[in-house]
Amino acid sequence: MRKYEIMYIIRPTVEQEARKALIEEMNKVLTDRGAADLTVNEWGTRELAYEIADFKRGYYVVVSVKANPDATAELDRVMKIKEDVLRHIIISREEK
Predict the structure, then answer these.
(1) b/e per residue, 53-87, with b = 16+ CB within 10 A?
(2) 36 has a pLDDT exceeding 80
(3) Please, what is the angle between helix 69-81 and helix 16-31, to 10°?
(4) Cβ(66)–Cβ(7) under 8 Å?
(5) Is the predicted pLDDT of residue 14 greater than 90, yes or no?
(6) Which of 37, 49, 52, 90 stands the most exposed, by the fewest C-beta atoms within 10 Å?
(7) What's 45's domain CATH number?
(8) Does the model's pTM come out above 0.85?
(9) pLDDT the model gives residue 96
(10) Do the Cβ atoms of 53 and 14 come closer than 8 Å?
(11) Which range of residues forms the domain containing residue 69?
């Protein structure tokens, strides 16, 4: 397993309960595929560097996890489908 750092931005108009459900759903995609050491850090609503889909703010979530490449590939696929996820990035952090 590799160590990954994942950041995604959720639309600021999403209700708190729906946002929590979305974060849980994204975490479940990883854990269902054998991910371990899942750490979720919610940064909250922040200004975007540039407008995305007419939004100037977004809700930032950062996840650190040890996972297989197929788990992150599935997460990438799911995030591309979700309309409430404005942007996302998955970075591999090789342990030394």
Answers:
(1) eeeeebbbbebebbbeeebbebbeeebeeeeebbe
(2) yes
(3) 150
(4) no
(5) yes
(6) 49
(7) 3.30.70.60
(8) yes
(9) 53
(10) no
(11) 2-93
Give the end-to-end CA distance of the chain in Å, rounded to a whole number: 13
pLDDT digits (tens, 9 = 90+) for 40-61: 999 999 999 999 999 999 999 9
The answer for residues whose C-beta is within 8 angstroms of residue 39's C-beta and 6 or more apart is 63, 64, 65
Strands 85-93 and 36-52: unpaired
The count of domains in the chain is 1
* Residue closest to 52 by CA, chosen among 6, 7, 4, 12: 12
Residue type, 66: K
